[in-house]
Amino acid sequence: MPNALINGVELYYETHGNGLPLVLVAGLGSDSQSWQPILDALSKQYLVITFDNRGVGRTGPQDVELSVPLIADDCVALIRHLGFSSVYLLGHSMGGLVALELATRFPDIAQKLILAATSVPVSSRNKTLFRRWASWLESGMELEPWFRSIFFWLFSARFFENTVAVADTVRFAVEYPYPQSAIAFRNQVEAIANYSCSGLAKVCPRTLVLGGQDDLLFPLANCARMAQEIPRATFKVIDNAAHSLHWEEPQAFAKSVLEFLADS
């Protein structure tokens, strides 16, 4: 898969399928591979573009300057590098902040916007929590208990009833061949903490806000409140899912996305 020299970083990206372009922006500590559960469903109808945000995955160097606006700039530059003037845009968690930033500063680029498991402003509780995760990683905490501690916030209680799935998910995370460095994770955490949306009323495209029924990080009430402030937004709940809603309920997630994009 290709890399593009964009804004001083070697940006890793992938394209899947054919059709109108749909760009997916991953969240904190996640990269292009985080979309695997829904990639097949979406790429049957769209040209799906995924990439590793600066500071994660195969995009390098990992210790580069990092902020939500800079990631949005990278996304815009990648879209133009691929020859598109506008795209459909989907962001999850921190990726939702990036999508909001792009939609407010580059209103002609996002034809439709999907914001999954995200809301602004980011709560003081979340900023403190994310910074604690960063401190644990910087302290040299072993990766298995580190990921397990984070997963309690990402997945619903029912996910942990399947001990095999939990073990497989932890193993995948620990053995992932493109790990994020502690400094890069800290930089992403601070990017979230320092981000201030310039105004939800400025979001022009039709928008779908998706919330996980059991999301502890970005509760439904916060997502619904944000949807009310975006002029052309619709709010939808994904049942039986927490923050990683596209992992726990990939079929329901993909169906919601595809129906929204197909609706003229």
Written overview of the protein:
Pfam families: Abhydrolase_1. Keywords: Oxidoreductase, Peroxidase. This is Putative non-heme bromoperoxidase BpoC. It is a single chain. The chain has 264 residues and is an alpha/beta fold. It has a single domain (3-262), classed as 3-Layer(aba) Sandwich (Rossmann fold). The chain is 42% helix and 18% strand. The chain has ten helices and eight strands. The chain has helices at 36-43, 68-81, 94-105, 124-138, 143-154, 163-174, 182-193, 220-229, 245-248, 250-262, and strands at 3-6, 9-16, 21-25, 47-51, 87-92, 110-116, 206-212, 233-238. The chain has an eight-stranded mixed sheet with strand order 1-2-4-3-5-6-7-8, sandwiched between helices. Helix 8 links the parallel strand 7 (206-212) and strand 8. The longest helix has 15 residues, at 124-138. The protein starts with a strand and ends with a helix. The model has no long low-confidence stretch (mean pLDDT 97).
Structural key phrases:
42% helix, 18% strand, alpha/beta, 264 residues, globular
Q: What is the CATH level 1 assignment? A: Alpha Beta
How would you sum up the major sheet? 8 strands, mixed
The assigned CATH architecture is 3-Layer(aba) Sandwich
> What is the CATH third-level topology name?
Rossmann fold
- Which H/E pattern describes the elements? EEEHEHEHEHHHHEHEHH
In order across it, which strands form the biggest sheet?
1-2-4-3-5-6-7-8
Q: What form results from the Cα inertia axes?
A: globular
Overall mean pLDDT: 97
CATH superfamily: Alpha/Beta hydrolase fold, catalytic domain
Helix fraction bin:
40-55%
What is the gyration radius calculated from CA atoms?
Answer: 17 Å
End-to-end C-alpha gap: 33 Å
Count of structural domains = 1
Continuous helix count: 10
> Which stretches are low in confidence, meaning pLDDT under 50 for 5 or more residues running?
none
Strand content: 15-25%
Count of distinct strands:
8
Structural class: alpha/beta
Organism: Bythopirellula polymerisocia
GO molecular function: bromide peroxidase activity
Enzyme class: oxidoreductase
Protein name: Putative non-heme bromoperoxidase BpoC
